[in-house]
Amino acid sequence: MDSAEKRPLRIAVIGVGLAGAAVGAFAKSLPDIDIRLYERSLVHRHVGALAVNDDSVTVHFHDGSHVEVDLVVVADGINSKIRQQLYPENVVKYMPQVEYMEVFEREHLSKTIPDLPQGTHCFFQEERMVFIGDIGRGRFGFIAVMPDDSEQVAQLGWADSINSTRLSKLRAQLERCNSLIHKILDQSKNMGIFPIARGGWLTSLIANDRICFVGDAAHPTGGAFGAGCSFAFEDAKTLILALNHTYGVNGCWSKETIRRALNLYNATRSPHILKVFQLLEASQEPESQTERGKLATAQQMKWLTTIDTEVEFRKALASEGNGPVTLTRPVPETLLPAQEVLKMVAPRGSL
After folding, report:
1. Does some domain include residue 110?
2. How far apart (Å, rounded) are the C-alpha atoms in residues 310 and 329?
3. Are the CB atoms for 21 and 77 separated by under 8 Å?
4. What is the mean pLDDT of the chain?
5. How many whole angstroms separate alpha carbon 246 and alpha carbon 250?
6. pTM over 0.70
7. Which of 200, 215, 251, 333 is 20 to 30 A from residue 224's alpha carbon, by CA?
8. CB distance 205 to 266 below 8 Å
């Protein structure tokens, strides 16, 4: 993209899970763009390699097709193929845990479980955790986090349906749990299993002035602190804040407009992500497993719930040496369609 050439900014979002969909939603505020979203499951099968030059990025697919764009937003999840290509040293390691998930129709479940509770409820038993409750639109969710062998976890596919042997294993692990849990398991028809994995911190969330990472592709924390959805939305909004601002300053989409936007995105989000990984590492220390340690960790986590994306972005702008700033093109609050949010938070069951 030549600095003097005025044409739409071509964006490819690789992966349309929560982070990719959020980028697509927030991007509605960007002027003069051509954005295309490539669904994650297809990308996992077909994505080949990226070729970057001064003017564009070409995404090659295994079926021989390709797309040429100005900006690639990598949102293809914790097992990101593109992250593996650009940062081969960042290897995802499987944890000795798995997550089971299923979504039920509340009306159907209530017929066999008359005492099905309202709201949400958590059950803890040593290393076992179960979460049940209403997730909206007449659906009732079940999530269980269970210990498992890390080598066996590595062999699992993402969101595979479990067989009768796995279901029996889950029942045995929850044998001493509340009887309500077993009543729900009796109605299971499409329980999914999700391997839990974690990678290292990316020292930069951008590459080659044309590529940026969002969501689990940017910070593969494996569900730590239960804040992955927040991280994804914060990534997406920060990226669009940066693009809107630099476009407002330059008045067109150019290589410099993109480069500065990505640097601002990285300057805003990287310190935040580093703190997350440092907190995650500290939480694994033996002293953190004591009651006092758990309390200290909880206190240290409070900042996770108080992040203001626009405030953090203004700090990054000020750090460029310009002092206090006003956003040239603020990003309006964006709500994803309810049906899309349901697909993200409840991937199993009939939606």
Report:
1. yes
2. 11
3. no
4. 83
5. 6
6. yes
7. 333
8. yes
